[in-house]
Amino acid sequence: MKRFAISSLAVAALALSACASLAPYGAQQGPSGQGFSEQRIESNRYRVTYRGVGAPGPVADFALLRAADLTTQEGYDWFEVVQSWTDGRPGGAGGVRPSVSIGGGTSRYGGYSASGVGVGLGLNLSVPQPTSTTLEVVLGRGAKPDRPSVYDARSVQGSIPR
Predict the structure, then answer these.
(1) C-alpha separations of 155 from 47, 64, 106, 152 in Å
(2) ∠ at Cα 122 (20, 19), nearest 5°?
(3) Rg of the chain's alpha carbons, rounded to an integer?
(4) What pTM does this model have?
(5) Which of 55-59, 73-77, 91-95 ranks highest by mean pLDDT?
């Protein structure tokens, strides 16, 4: 019976993890949905946000990909990230994290002595957490400036899978 209960919990946790994962790259559907949105600040300056569920890294990649797509759609060649914000937690991907603990002890009572060892197993069941990355970008044409915050839009489009 215990094995069945533990197996059932593990299957339920995996099912929850599968339901709450990063959606495919695309526009945000609704105010709490996953996906990208952007706001034009000036003629060549935008604020790009990508909201997703899971680890902050893939969400940040999709924010860069959206900035690259926007750059080429607007007829520019490169973009510079002038500010960025990440609202996420390290390890936000969730999942099942097993833990093991071992303990031991001895005791004496009267003329008797005893010793024992115990092993404990635990499961931390957590679901992926919402996260978002916002980039403020300036779009440019021509030769890409040699700064680490400047990205060639077509290179980003070719290197981040959708």
Answers:
(1) 20, 11, 65, 5
(2) 10
(3) 24
(4) 0.69
(5) 73-77
Confidence (pLDDT) at 122: 73
Euclidean distance between CA atoms 24 and 59, whole angstroms:
11
Place of tokens 């926007």: 70
Taking the C-alpha atoms of residue 32 and residue 46, their distance in angstroms, rounded to an integer, is 21
Candidates 75, 99, 87; CA nearest to 50 is 87
**Phi, then psi, of 93 in degrees rounded to 5:** -75, -15
H or E stretch including 29?
A: none
For residue 6 the two structure tokens come to: 């533990």
pLDDT, greater one: 130 or 16: 130
Can you tell me the mean pLDDT for 4-31?
65
Token representation of residue 11: 């299957």
Nearest to 52 by CA among 162, 127, 131: 131
Determine the pLDDT at residue 83. Answer: 94
Distance CA 91, CA 32 (A): 21
